[in-house]
Amino acid sequence: MPRTQDGHLPPVQRHGLGIRRYETLDTARGCALLSMLLYHAAWDLVYMFGVNWPWYRGFAAHVWQQSICWTFILLSGYCWSLGRHRLRRGLTVFLSGALVTAVTWALLPENLVFCGVLTLLGASSLLLIPLAPALERLPPRAGLAGSFLLFLVTRDVNAGFLGFEGLRLAALPPGLYRDHLTALLGFPPAGFFSTDYFSLLPWFFLFLTGYYLFRLRPQEDPREGRRVPLVTAMGRHSLLIYLLHQPVIYALLTAGHFLLTGATV
C-alpha cells in the first residue's frame, strides 16, 4: 500500500485501514475486558466476601493483573493516532475516572479508587496532544525503544526508587513524595491508599510505547480484520463496561452468596 513521503498512509487509505483495524483492536480489547471481569470477580470474592484463596495473593495472580493493565494501556496508546476527536475522548475518559473516584470516596471509602486506570488513560491522551508534534520527529524505532526503556527504569517510582519489579537501581529523594498531587505524577506520600493506582510515571511511558507501535504497524491488507462477535462488541463499548462492571459483578456475587447461604453480606 503506497505511503506519502513522510511515511504515513494517505488520508482515505488510512481511514479505510483504521476501520478494519478497529475490529482487530476491539477484539483484543474485548479479550482484555473478559480477563479483567474474571480478575475483578476474584478480587471481590477474596477482599469483599472473605474467600481464602492464597493463590490469588501470590505472584501468578500479580502477573495476571499486570497482563490486563499492560494490554489496556498499550492498546490505548496504539489507538490514539486513530482517533479523530482526541480532546473530547481524553476528557471523557479522564472525567469518567474522576467519577469513579467520587463514587468510591462517597460510597466505598474503604475501596477508594484514586488515580485509577481511567484517570491515567484520559490524562495520557490529553498530554499526548501537545507532545505529538515533537514525538513525531523521532524515528519510530528509537521512540519505541526509548519509551519502553523509560517505562522499565521508572516502573517502581511509586515505591521510592528507579527499577523494575523490585530490582533497585537508585533511590529517589523522599521530598518528591509529598501529597495527592505528587501521587498523580507517581510519587505517593506515606499512608497513600488506592485500590486501583496508575500514576503518570511510569505508565505514560507504556502508553507512548503503544503510540510508537502504531507508527511501526505493518502494511497489512485492510480486509484482514479479526472479529469475534460478542468479544469485539465488548471491546467497542469498553468504557461503558468498565464503568458498570464492578457494581454488576458485586450484585451477582451478593445474589449468589444469598442463594447459597441464605444470608446477606
Concise summary:
With 265 residues, the chain is mainly alpha-helical. It contains nine helices and two strands, in the order αααααββαααα. The N terminus is likely disordered.
Topology, number of strands: 2
Beta content comes to under 5%
Largest sheet: 2 strands, antiparallel
User: DSSP helix count?
Assistant: 9
Computed Rg = 20 Å
Could you characterize what this model shows?
The protein is mostly helical. The chain has 2 domains: 8-57 and 231-265, no CATH class; 86-218, no CATH class. It has 9 helices and 2 strands; from the N terminus they run H-H-H-H-H-E-E-H-H-H-H. The protein has a two-stranded antiparallel ribbon with strand order 1-2. Helix 1 runs antiparallel to helix 2 (59-79), helix 3 (86-107) packs antiparallel against helix 4 (117-135) and helix 5 runs antiparallel to helix 7. The N and C termini lie far apart (59 Å). The model is unreliable at 1-21 (pLDDT under 50).
Key words describing this protein structure:
265 residues; mainly alpha; two-stranded antiparallel ribbon; 63% helix
Blueprint of the fold:
Layout: H1 11-47, H2 59-79, H3 86-107, H4 117-135, H5 140-154, E1 161-164, E2 167-171, H6 180-185, H7 200-215, H8 229-236, H9 238-261
Antiparallel strand pairs: 1-2
Helix pairs in contact: 1-2, 1-8, 1-9, 2-4, 2-7, 3-4, 4-7, 5-7
